[in-house]
Structures are given as structure tokens and as C-alpha cells.
Automatic annotation (TrEMBL):
<dbReference type="InterPro" id="IPR032808">
    <property type="entry name" value="DoxX"/>
</dbReference>
<feature type="transmembrane region" description="Helical">
    <location>
        <begin position="115"/>
        <end position="137"/>
    </location>
</feature>
<protein>
    <submittedName>
        <fullName>Membrane protein YphA (DoxX/SURF4 family)</fullName>
    </submittedName>
</protein>
<keyword id="KW-0812">Transmembrane</keyword>
<feature type="transmembrane region" description="Helical">
    <location>
        <begin position="62"/>
        <end position="82"/>
    </location>
</feature>
<feature type="transmembrane region" description="Helical">
    <location>
        <begin position="89"/>
        <end position="109"/>
    </location>
</feature>
<dbReference type="GO" id="GO:0016020">
    <property type="term" value="C:membrane"/>
</dbReference>
<keyword id="KW-1133">Transmembrane helix</keyword>
<dbReference type="Pfam" id="PF07681">
    <property type="entry name" value="DoxX"/>
</dbReference>
<feature type="transmembrane region" description="Helical">
    <location>
        <begin position="7"/>
        <end position="25"/>
    </location>
</feature>
<keyword id="KW-0472">Membrane</keyword>
Length: 145
């Protein structure tokens, strides 16, 4: 396989992985206050409030638990995609997580919102990544040797 087919899968892994890591850093307050430099939340409390908006049927305490689970999943998926470990499984998990996120956004915030933030596109990209047979420049590729 030539570099023209190797580079797109690497770019897709990196784009999705970084796309998971940056929001995690935002909600943990690492990137600064909400509204500064594109930060959505700026702290954990703002993120839990937003999670409650997306999952209003759960209540605030359950939304807090879901915020923790989502953050762990996003951090884990981000790192695994970047390094390319268990990529197919990670891509499928990323697809499921972003699809649920997009559907909750569409239902509870508004149908245009997940498109404004390309959440359906991220979900589709993760699903597409899961269909690629070989992940070059990855831990997966290294372990196959």
C-alpha cells in the first residue's frame, strides 16, 4: 500500500483522537475559562450542567455519573486512537459514543446542533475508521510484526 492510502487513516485517527482529548481538557479546566479561546465549559460543574441538559430524564446526580463515564471514555478513546491501539474496537466505541451524543443533542437541544458541531460527521468518521483493514503507523501495526 502506498503513502496516499496510509496517510488518510493516520490523519483520521489523529483528528478523532485529538477531537476527544481537547473537550476533556476543556471540561477539566486545563484550557482556561468558558468562552476563552473557544472553550465550551471551562470547568467540571459547567460540563455536568451541560450533561444534564443532554440527559434531562436522568436527574442531576445521574448526569454527574454519566459525565464521569463519558469523560473516561473520551480520554481513553482519544489516547487509543492517537497511538493506534485496538483501533478497530476503539473506533466502534467512538462511533457508538458520538452517535448517542449526537442523538441526545438533536432531541434535547435541537436537531441542528449536532450538525453545527459535526458530531454526526465524527460518528460517521469513527465508523469508517473501524472498516479500515490495516492501521499503519500504529501500535496495532507494530504488534502484528
Amino acid at each position: 500500500m502506498n503513502n496516499t492510502t496510509k496517510v488518510p487513516q493516520l490523519f483520521l485517527r489523529l483528528a478523532l483522537g485529538i477531537g476527544f482529548i481537547l473537550p476533556v481538557l476543556d471540561r477539566l479546566g486545563v484550557l482556561g475559562e468558558a468562552g476563552i479561546n473557544g472553550n465550551a465549559w471551562g470547568n467540571w460543574a459547567n460540563f455536568v450542567t451541560y450533561t444534564n441538559t443532554l440527559l434531562p430524564f436522568l436527574g442531576k446526580s445521574a448526569a454527574g455519573a454519566m459525565a464521569i463515564l463519558a469523560t473516561i471514555a473520551e480520554a481513553l478513546f482519544g489516547v487509543l486512537l492517537i497511538i493506534g491501539y485496538k483501533t478497530k474496537l476503539t473506533a466502534l466505541g467512538s462511533f457508538a459514543l458520538t452517535l448517542v451524543f449526537a442523538l441526545c443533542m438533536a432531541i434535547f437541544v435541537g436537531p441542528r446542533i449536532p450538525f453545527n458541531y459535526s458530531v454526526f460527521a465524527d460518528s460517521a468518521a469513527a465508523l469508517l475508521l473501524s472498516t479500515i483493514p490495516v492501521y499503519y503507523w500504529s501500535v496495532d501495526s507494530y504488534l502484528k510484526k
